[in-house]
């Protein structure tokens, strides 16, 4: 017990590492966290925007072109950068969500860096981290990250 009371307010962020709205709102949440540091509890909950059970698109190229336009439109609202070329629409955001959640076990700073890298995979590089291997590869080299532990925790 430190004698410091637990904050009475909790801010819950529902997010998906591969969601363009989440990508665009990241700076707002970062500023909110800094402004309210110590005064609120912050909790991140991962939702899954892209799921393995979704029907495959009849025309993957057309689906990718539509989604790229959709991301560009969202960017007009959020002012977030986005990849000029998108290789494909993510098949699943489960792997990236599992990796992001597992990274929380290595501390808040590592978790923030991992989530940022996962988001950058699609919105900066145009290659969604939509498999376990791609998600783990996208976060390789994050300072302070134990990759073996991350792999094990994400698979558990």
What report would you give on this structure?
By secondary structure, the protein is mainly alpha-helical. The chain has a two-stranded parallel ribbon with strand order 1-2. It has helices at residues 20-35, 60-78, 94-103, 108-123, 132-138, 147-155, and strands at residues 9-15, 40-46. Helix 3 (94-103) runs antiparallel to helix 4 and helix 3 packs across helix 6 (147-155). It contains six helices and two strands; from the N terminus they run βαβααααα. Helix 1 links the parallel strand 1 (9-15) and strand 2. The chain has a single domain (9-155), classed as Glutaredoxin, CATH 3.40.30.10.
Characteristic terms for this protein:
single chain; 156 residues; mainly alpha; Glutaredoxin; two-stranded parallel sheet; 6 helices; globular
Q: Any chance you could write out the topology, listing elements then pairs?
A:
Layout (H helix, E strand, L loop, with lengths): L8 E7 L4 H16 L4 E7 L13 H19 L15 H10 L4 H16 L8 H7 L8 H9 L1
Parallel strand pairs: 1-2
Helix pairs in contact: 1-2, 3-4, 3-6
